[in-house]
Specification:
By secondary structure, the protein is an all-alpha fold. It contains 14 helices and no strands. The radius of gyration is 20 Å and the shape is globular.
Length: about 300
């Protein structure tokens, strides 16, 4: 299996697992748990899992001095993205938040184009358009409902923070650091934000039902440890922009669990949205071949000379 195939598979797994956030977080909210406490336990458990994996593989926990500041910055970005997304669930439905969150592939493409001079290809534009169209169809809002400006602002901040993280983790400075170690320290430094926000444990909400601990553990495993490990590795294989576009699978995950677990209806509108997203993902995986086909198609319709 070549590196690109691995990258696409890992990117898809990362997106699907990150889409599980509402599945495990919303039951905790119903029990009265606040976002800071949820995220504190989510990061704490994920760090423990990754630490055990590092130890089991015989990897060193040591960091070079030049790697510390970049990892602190990435940890802060991830923590801010998680915090603002989870806070937005208090102002709007999780499905709407996931829909708005998906502006991050556009932000990644813009950052890569304007900051790092990466060329935005016709293929990238087509994939983003198809993915956004599909995401728009996945959201079915109530008539006359006005979205909370606070909720929108929180999700936009979350999206921007995540986009900067995706770009930042692909910088050459961290190329020599193992993916597992990067993820461990990103989450470790991110945990410090939630440690401060729960007043070093003074305002920490501790659940009293065993199955809720299962939710917290699942949050640590799927949308945290697995998602960030796969995201970091995928970025190293295929780059920031393709990995971000593969994130279109996140809302598809939400629809899947909504239909299978919460009994939501699978409408033609949802089916069309899923098809558009799958097309976007297929095109980005197809790579440069799509560009070649588009150029050939364009040549079928040559411009006629202007009459004088």
């Amino acid at each position: 299996m070549n590196a690109k195939v691995k990258g696409y598979i890992l990117g898809s797994i990362a997106a699907a697992s990150y889409g599980m956030n509402p599945l495990f977080a919303l039951p905790l909210y119903k029990e009265g748990m606040d976002p800071d406490s949820v995220l504190f336990f989510r990061y704490l458990f994920a760090i423990s899992i990754l630490g055990i994996m590092l130890k089991a593989r015989g990897r060193s926990f040591k960091l070079r001095k030049q790697d510390v500041l970049p990892l602190i910055a990435l940890g802060c970005l991830v923590a801010v993205s998680s915090l603002t997304l989870f806070q937005s669930y208090n102002y709007m439905e999780a499905g709407i938040a996931s829909t708005i969150l998906f502006v991050y592939p556009i932000l990644v493409a813009v950052i890569m184009a304007f900051v790092f001079k990466e060329k935005i290809t016709l293929q990238t534009i087509l994939c983003i358009f198809l993915a956004l169209s599909g995401i728009a169809l996945l959201y079915k809002g109530d008539d006359g409902t006005t979205l909370s400006l606070t909720g929108i602002a929180l999700v936009v901040i979350s999206s921007l923070s995540y986009a900067i993280y995706i770009v930042g983790v692909n910088r050459p400075r961290l190329k020599d650091v193992a993916t597992l170690k990067i993820t461990f320290y990103v989450l470790l430094f991110g945990l410090s934000l939630f440690l401060v926000r729960v007043d070093f444990g003074q305002t920490l909400y501790i659940v009293d039902k065993w199955y809720l601990w299962g939710n917290l553990f699942a949050l640590a495993v799927f949308p945290t440890a697995i998602s960030f490990l796969c995201t970091t590795q995928a970025i190293q294989y295929i780059g920031s922009t393709p990995t971000a576009i593969l994130g279109a699978l996140e809302p598809v995950t939400a629809v899947f669990f909504g239909v299978t677990i919460f009994g939501e209806q699978l409408t033609p509108r949802l089916c069309l949205g899923i098809v558009l997203i799958i097309l976007a993902v297929t095109f980005i995986i197809a790579g440069s071949n799509i560009n070649a086909y588009l150029i050939r198609f364009r040549k079928l319709f040559p411009r006629l000379p202007l009459k004088r």
